[in-house]
Amino acid sequence: MTREAISSEGAPAALGPYSQAIIAGGFVFCSGMAGIDPATGAIPEGIEAQTEQALLNLAAVLAAAGASMADLVKTTIFYADVNDFEKLNAVYARHMPDPPPARSAPANVRLPRGLLVSIEAVAVLPPQDGDPFEGGNQSGVIIEA
After folding, report:
1. How many domains does the chain have?
2. Cα distances (angstroms) measured from residue 106 to each of 22, 67, 80
3. pTM over 0.90
4. Which of 39, 51, 43, 69 is nearest to 119 (CA)?
5. Residue 52 sits in a domain of what CATH number?
6. Do 11 and 97 meet the contact criterion of CB atoms below 8 Å apart?
7. Neighbours of 3 (CB within 10 A)
8. Residue 130 falls within a domain, yes or no?
9. Spatial distance between the Cα atoms of 27 and 11, rounded to a whole number of angstroms
10. pLDDT tens for residues 3-59?
């Protein structure tokens, strides 16, 4: 299986030795997207502003990979204060497709640089022209629901 690293200037550079995203097996695996403004490096005030920026950063990385928020199948939201759950959900819901992806949301997590939220995601790549398998699946296995 091949792996392709994805990088977008529309999202902040990684804070450590990792890729913004990796394409493998017809999926896009996105690292935790923080609410950092990619142009200035500034961290907005409050959970709503950081969640909004994190989701904009996620959308930019997905676009660089050839996917979109509509292609999300799983997200994991790490956030610092369980009391922010409703505020976080209000912003998150505005950006999610219908039906929304599966999700986990562990709270009371210590994040670097005083961040309040970090959002990991997995998306399936849309089918390419002439590709009979969704997301470039080359396994030859067709699963019908």
Report:
1. 1
2. 23, 26, 9
3. no
4. 51
5. 3.30.1330.40
6. no
7. 10
8. yes
9. 19
10. 999 999 999 998 889 999 999 999 999 999 999 999 999 999 999 999 999 999 999
